[in-house]
Amino acid sequence: MQNLSQLDVQGKRVLVRVDYNVPVKDGLVQDDTRVTASLPTINALLDAGARNVILMSHFGRPKNGPEEKYSLKPVAPVLEKALGRPVTFIAGTADSDETLAAVEALPEGAVALLENVRFSAGEEKNEEGLNGRLARLGDAFVLDAFGSAHRAHSSVSGVAAQLPHAAGTLLQTEVDALGRLLDGAERPYVVIIGGAKVSDKIKVIENLLPRVDKLLIGGGMAYTFIKSQGGKIGDSIHEDDQLDLAARLLREYGDKIMLPVDVIAADAFSADANTQVVASNAIPDGWQGLDAGPETVRLYSEALKGAKTVFWNGPLGVFEFEKFAGGTNAVAAAVGSLKNQAYTVVGGGDSVSAINRSGKADQIDHISTGGGASLELLEGKALPGVEAMK
User: Fold this and answer.
1) What is the pTM of this model?
2) If you classify domain 177-378 with CATH, what class do you get?
3) Which one is catalytic: 147, 218, 219, 349?
4) Which residues, other chains included, contact 261 with Cβ-Cβ below 8 Å and sequence gap of 6+?
5) Residues comprising the binding site for substrate?
6) For every residue of the chain, which 3-state class applies, written as one string?
7) CATH 3.40.50.1260 residue ranges for the chain
8) Which of 12, 13, 17, 34 is catalytic?
9) Is 349 a catalytic residue?
10) Which residues does the record give as substrate binding sites (predicted)?
11) Catalytic annotation on 197?
12) CATH classification of 4-167, choosing from 3.40.50.2300, 3.40.640.10, 3.40.50.1260, 3.50.50.60?
């Protein structure tokens, strides 16, 4: 990819696609992680002499044009505070003539945030006309929204085809960090995959299995694997249509795949359910596995010792309930303990929440902001946004 140092921005308006799809409640931003993640790119452009930095992002899933609840206006003061300089919020659809006039009127050195790009018809269809109207807003384009890089949308890849372009700091960091998990990873290489469904992660599992030394499976998806081997899983979540696939993977990679040997079972999906520790393949009827058991935690922690590369995506249990957070927290501690010994990456979504809750986030080399984009890259897919930056 072309990086920022290869893009001439001196005296130019730079249109930057960021990812400000942040949680907002009662008009207030609840988590500014994605806002602060964009600061290195914004500051780098200003330091390089950009006349203006014009930021655009999607927010939520508005259905039929502008909806007040999906406005990016609440993000502007949060960005202003984090950046330490004024930020102009430009209301109205990003591709309108009024927005163009407002951008052209900005004083030199100003930073502006456009309204939600999904308010503009054609954004998700990568409509050529919209691409051109957005491209009017800048002399150069920077993509820094890794979380949207897997989408062939106007504001992601469409504008890039019409302006000189480069990858932002965040996008470059994400691609470099995740790329290390695919090519030339130092071994031993251990991957932990959790979450509810095998079907959500199967392509990642299939792409990584030939590359890794151990694959530790947890969360709800483990019960599909256990049932495929004839185990009794009680009322545990599983996918019957994935049983043959799970059985095949165990036949082909049984020496690499580790499954829970015991679980904390509950008599209801509830924070205050009754619990018992049982063998993972002997869960009584009426009970469901909601967390890894103590012996599984010990074995998985042991498997991580000595690892040189570790990737973790997905919790080992229903960590939102304190009773069933122990397995996830223990693995977080085990991965965190490898600081300065191994290259460690935590994939997006629930994994990020889990590592933040565990208090071990500062011990991880890279925490991906990508979610779906992270998984698609690790599946071996070409991401439209990344391809557009080449």
Assistant:
1) 0.87
2) alpha beta
3) 349
4) 279, 280, 293, 295, 296, 299
5) 19-21, 34, 58-61, 118, 151
6) CCEHHHCCCECCEEEEECCCCCCEECCEECCCHHHHHCHHHHHHHHHCCECEEEEECCCCCCCCCCCHHHCCCCHHHHHHHHHCCCEEEECCCCCCHHHHHHHHCCCCCCEEEECCHHHCCCHHHCCHHHHHHHHCCCCEEEECCHHHCCCCCHHHHHHHHCCCEEECHHHHHHHHHHHCCCCCCCCCEEEEECCCCHHHHHHHHHHHHHHCCEEEECCCHHHHHHHHCCCEECCCCCCHHHHHHHHHHHHHHCCCEECCCEEEEECCCCCCCCEEEEECCEECCCCEEEEECHHHHHHHHHHHCCCCEEEEECCCCCCCCHHHCHHHHHHHHHHHCCCCCCEEEECCCHHHHHHHHHCCHHHCCEECCCCHHHHHHHCCCCCHHHHHCC
7) 4-167, 177-378
8) 34
9) yes
10) 19-21, 34, 58-61, 118, 151
11) yes
12) 3.40.50.1260
The one catalytic residue among 132, 180, 372, 381: 372
Per-10-residue mean pLDDT for the chain, 390 residues long? 94 97 90 91 98 97 90 97 97 96 97 97 94 97 95 96 96 94 93 90 92 96 97 97 96 96 97 97 98 97 96 92 92 90 85 77 88 87 93
What residues are designated binding site for ATP?
201, 289, 320, 348-351
Query: Any catalytic annotation for residue 372?
Result: yes
* Rounded Cα distance, 146 and 135, in Å: 20
Q: Tokens 């806002």 appear where?
A: 35
Catalytic residue among 85, 197, 232, 308: 197
